[in-house]
Amino acid sequence: DAKTTQPNSMESNEEEPVHLPCNHSTISGTDYIHWYRQLPSQGPEYVIHGLTSNVNNRMASLAIAEDRKSSTLILHRATLRDAAVYYCILRDGLSSGGSNYKLTFGKGTLLTVNP
Amino acid sequence: NAGVTQTPKFQVLKTGQSMTLQCAQDMNHNSMYWYRQDPGMGLRLIYYSASEGTTDKGEVPNGYNVSRLNKREFSLRLESAAPSQTSVYFCASSFVRQQNTEAFFGQGTRLTVV
Known about the structure:
Structural class of chain B: mainly beta
Order of helices and strands of chain A: EEEEEEEEEE
Oligomer: heterodimer
Shape of chain A: globular
Distance between the termini of chain A: 38 Å
């Protein structure tokens, strides 16, 4: 499985932008980059995903490097409700040759938002 | 729309007892998953089911069994609970064969084995 590397923790101030980095140097050509976050005492929730182009949705933006070996999750204006663990994950599905799909989680980045 | 529902939310077991964690989804998803999360750690995959009638081992399957009862339900059984199985268990579901779709997670079952 392709692995991802994220900083253990990051800190931000409320209403400021946050850039959460992720390195995935062994990504394969068909792997999608997914981001999930986990709020305290809750299950993970989907944030955004992409393949090659930058992506925007109501929660965040995803910037993908041209060589796809890294990506950045951008929260445009952090709020206290954005304090969570953010996971960068590569989809391990069709590229493995099987009919399965696995989401393999690392330890993620703990984002602290200061008021 | 309930999404992924897990029962129970909390459970305390004695060493050697057995129990089944239940999971149901109402989104017509093909695939379902069981993860465990230990304090300060990420989620580790225990078992998954790509479709009704199939199950496969994940990263940490020892001590667990699963049953894909139908398309909606995927249960996780601990035959003889051990303190090392104290953890938070999450069930998830998604469409299989589509890399660009999201997975949905339940709220978790907090299990303590004493």
